[in-house]
Amino acid sequence: MAEKAEWHLENKAKGGPLDLAAWTAALWKDARVQAAWPVVADAMLTVAQWKFDHAQDKEGKQPPALDADEEAFAKYFKSLIAHESVADGIPPAVPWDDLAARKKWTNAQLKKAQAVRGKLNVPRERFRQTRTGEFVWAGRQP
Q: If you write DSSP's letter for every residue of 3-17 in order, what string do you get?
């Protein structure tokens, strides 16, 4: 799904910027995404079921159920994009302490970027989120 999302943003949206809702809707219209989504949802259900079966405290909890509709796809896609995005403008190969001292980005943005890029600030993200909340392809030069 991440590959398809990246391809769409790079090729169809010309690198962005693209609103998350429009991006989700465009991907959902793709027949290959609709064919793949139930398989992905089933795999996630299998993992969730295993976790439920091996949980110590199940009291009062319901076992997971398969949810392969458009709303579940949108929720999954939002999570996927959040996991592979950093705030726009964070330069690579600059020590995190130096970036924090500049005060251009919030601590939450820097922590998220650090989680994606690692301790040496090496770009690994697929997407960058603009200040307006839209997304651009990380390979697009500003």
A: HHHHHIIIIISTT--
On whether residue 63 sits in a domain, the answer given is no
Q: Residue 77 has which token pair?
A: 């896609």
Alpha-carbon distance of 9 to 26, in angstroms, equals 10
Please indicate, yes or no, if residue 60 is contained in any of the structural domains: no
- Give the span between the Cα atoms of 77 and 140, in whole angstroms: 21
CB 127 within 8 A of CB 137: yes
Q: How many structural domains comprise the chain?
A: 1
Residues 54-85: tens digit of each pLDDT: 887 777 788 888 888 999 999 999 999 999 99
For the whole model, what pTM was predicted?
0.82
